[in-house]
Write a structure and sequence with these properties.
Elements: E1 8-12, E2 18-19, E3 28-29, H1 33-46, E4 50-52, H2 62-69, E5 77-82, H3 89-102, E6 107-111, H4 117-122, H5 129-149, E7 151-155, E8 160-165, E9 178-180, H6 185-192, E10 197-201, H7 205-221, E11 227-236, H8 240-250, H9 256-269, H10 273-282, E12 290-292, E13 295-296, E14 309-312, H11 314-327, E15 329-335, H12 339-354, E16 371-372, E17 382-383
Parallel strand pairs: 1-4, 1-15, 4-5, 5-6, 6-9, 9-10, 10-11, 11-14, 11-15
Antiparallel strand pairs: 2-3, 7-8, 12-13, 13-14, 16-17
Helix pairs in contact: 1-12, 3-5, 6-7, 11-12
Enzyme class: oxidoreductase
EC number: 1.14.14.5
Function: Catalyzes the desulfonation of aliphatic sulfonates.
């Protein structure tokens, strides 16, 4: 694909539930821990480096989900949310250090300051949008200091910590990496001196390039290096035509009334600049969903947050990813519906084009003789016939 290092590719644990059709209860899969475990163990085996576990009132608690999945996985990292204001920085430091120790250094931390005013109010947080970042800045002064040194003090406007202590350090030194996504000026300024990796939702490459340049400059002004990741859905099939058919199928049972209700809820409940940028890509219309070559905004008709998918054959999608990689993106947080099947499709079809090592057999599959799948009959698989 390029001379650069292969992309770091993470998958997604759909704790709000999963399904084959957006906006429909047909073939849906309710939130179920056994299903999450199937996805996590598959992702671990298929070559994904980690999984994002989402956070909201519609999701299972991500720290608990990660702790439950860690014993069933070997290499998989867990990107879980720290939400300032929902608990003290000292408490979050304790559970972060514990999870990092339980997983033997496989914790990644996702800073989520908020986006839904309604949800924040339910958590007892009533700060205005920009002020939430002032609060979060003080929160992470204490949180990071505890993880890095085991003790912290702060007499701030929002956070007060007197001789706070952390009994056990995390495995990773000085602490697990911090990821952050936020498109507002206040969010970018907050992240500039703090985040190790800045995340963007899947906007067209030109918009992502503009944002990356802005974040990179803000970080450099504070003497900080930052790397970049992107959150995208994927619809990959053997041909472009098959992929677009799958995209159409995904929203084939989605009514205009459901779209209108979802868009109204996003507008009413969210003060997220990133959410506004996602919604602006499609404007709630299903007739203009390819917002950039192979970048499809159909998911954002009803899903809040990340609402775009790359659609196409492996070569097509790899070419689109190279455009993002040339901008500076080195990490992809991916998903697809339903998540178990699509984890296989992306690994088997797309990873070879990206130079990512997929599933590796734990034992030799044969006595060094190439074979083809013979349907699983009693005679076993077939040897490759020379010249065939």
């Amino acid at each position: 694909m390029s001379s650069k290092q292969p992309l770091d590719f993470l998958w997604f644990i759909p704790t709000p539930g999963d399904g084959s059709y957006l906006g429909s209860n047909e073939q849906n899969r309710p939130a179920d821990h056994r299903y999450f475990r199937e996805i996590a163990t598959a992702a671990d085996r298929l070559g994904y480096s980690g999984v994002l576990i989402p956070t909201s009132i519609a999701c299972e608690e991500p720290f608990l989900v990660a702790a439950a999945l860690a014993p069933f996985t070997e290499k998989l990292k867990f990107l879980v949310a720290v939400r300032p204001g929902t608990a003290s920085p000292a408490y979050y430091a304790r559970i972060a250090a514990t999870l990092d120790r339980i997983s033997n250094g496989r914790l990644l931390l996702n800073i989520v300051v908020g986006g839904s005013a309604q949800e924040l109010a339910g958590d007892g947080i009533f700060l205005a949008h920009d002020e939430r970042y002032d609060h979060a800045d003080e929160f992470f002064q204490v949180f990071n200091k505890l993880l890095e040194t085991g003790e912290a003090n702060l007499d701030g406007k929002y956070i007060k910590a007197i001789d706070a202590k952390l009994g056990y350090p995390p495995v990773q030194s000085p602490r697990p990496p911090l990821y952050f996504g936020g498109s507002s000026d206040a969010g970018i300024d907050f992240s500039a001196g703090l985040a190790d990796k800045y995340l963007t939702w899947g906007e067209p490459p030109a918009q992502v390039a503009e944002k990356v340049a802005k974040v990179r400059k803000a970080a450099a002004d504070k003497g900080k290096d930052v790397s970049f990741g992107i959150r995208l859905h994927f619809i990959v099939r053997e041909t472009d035509e098959e992929a677009w058919e799958a995209a159409d199928s995904l929203i084939s049972k989605l009514s205009d009334e459901t779209i209108a209700q979802a868009q109204e809820n996003f507008t009413k409940n969210s003060d997220s600049v990133g959410q506004s940028r996602m919604a602006a890509l499609h404007g709630g219309r299903r007739d203009k969903l390819e917002v950039s070559p192979n970048l499809w905004a159909g998911i954002g008709l009803v899903r809040s947050g990340a609402g775009t998918a790359l659609v196409g054959s492996p070569k097509t999608v790899a070419a689109r990813l190279k455009e993002y990689q040339d901008i500076g993106i080195d990490t992809v947080i991916a998903s697809g519906y339903p998540h178990l099947e699509e984890a296989y499709r992306v690994s088997e079809l797309l990873f070879p084009e990206l130079g990512i090592t997929g599933a590796v057999p734990s034992a030799r599959p044969s006595f060094n003789q190439p074979q083809v799948f013979g349907g699983g009959g009693h005679g076993g698989n077939l040897r490759v016939v020379a010249g065939s």
